[in-house]
Fold Putative dehydrogenase.
Amino acid sequence: MKINIGIIGCGNIAQSVHLPILIKNPDIKSIFVSDTDMRALENTCKRFGIKACRSFQDYRKFLDQVDAVFILTPPHTHHALVIDCLKYGRHVFVEKPLCMTAEEAVDIKKLAEDTGLIVETGYNLRFMPQLRLAKKLLKRGHIGRVITVNGYYLAEAAYMRENKTFYLDPDKGGGVLMDGLCHLIDISSWFMDSTIVEAYGFTGIYDDLPVDNIANISIRFENGITGHLQAIWAPLSEYLHTGDLKTIKIVGDQGVLAPEIYSGRIKEYRTRKGTHTIYPKNMDLRNPMWALGRSYLDQDTDFINRIKKGSNNLNKLKESARIVEILDSIKKYGAFKK
Ligand SMILES: NC(=O)c1ccc[n+]([C@@H]2O[C@H](COP(=O)([O-])OP(=O)(O)OC[C@H]3O[C@@H](n4cnc5c(N)ncnc54)[C@H](O)[C@@H]3O)[C@@H](O)[C@H]2O)c1
């Protein structure tokens, strides 16, 4: 069975990540695209060879012809679009963060549960090959019992890109808390196999931006483990994908596992067993973007496969909703407690 896909939003992530992957997926029959901005829509159709009959400014014009929708628009639009697509009976992939507020997250979770439709959020780090390998090593007891987790995400200074206005608008989901820290919350919870029940944090602005470009939180998981996460927009884009500027450090009672979030490497420091650098199987060492590319490919393929098999993952949706609750609460009160 082949499926039809609709894309809402033909901006950066649609053009650089999802469309190049989806047009090559053998399980997809047709792709429909929409964007309220005519120029973005026309560019996309030209670049990906999409016919005029599959291109619309209003996504509602293709909802009756698709099985699932990719929502690739700024965060402040996510809630209304997800709800509309679910009400229309369509599975949804929505880019991170799921939505803007705790109330919106509850709303989406409820409708997804009621309809049984899949709602997947674009937390692609879970699909990074080195992070998957690191999780396996952790489960095998490589560093003993986990004591704490620390995440450090030096992200691209999104606000320096041209035409990226939503990143600079707090009402549209701008700022590094929403843009980068959400990834760290997701990946640390995934590593710990536990939910964050308590968080305290601060955001900061190191220049004259209208949104935060430094975000810090201290966290406690349901299983008692504590940690610290920090995300920064930094004007260092030439180094961000290669080195250890984005890492998770998981400290155990018999060592430390430190997978680099983008480069693909894992460094381990094991009590009486030495330090090693580990790479996932088949890694292309000459390509610094290999792990990132694989994460997006595996993420989108997994979503398409789950539609085909009818296999839902409501737990993952609950985790995405929890991330929004934490971000919303940190923004409003500097604290989150469940
Ligand atoms: N997972 C990742 O690694 C990653 C990376 C970058 C961006 N993102 C996420 O992807 C989303 C989009 O980011 P981007 O950088 O592509 O933004 P962008 O501004 O480049 O593109 C967004 C597009 O959506 C369109 N749009 C807005 N409202 C619309 C509507 N109601 N209907 C149709 N089109 C509409 C805009 O015209 C624009 O073309 C954000 O949620 C962002 O956080 C995720």
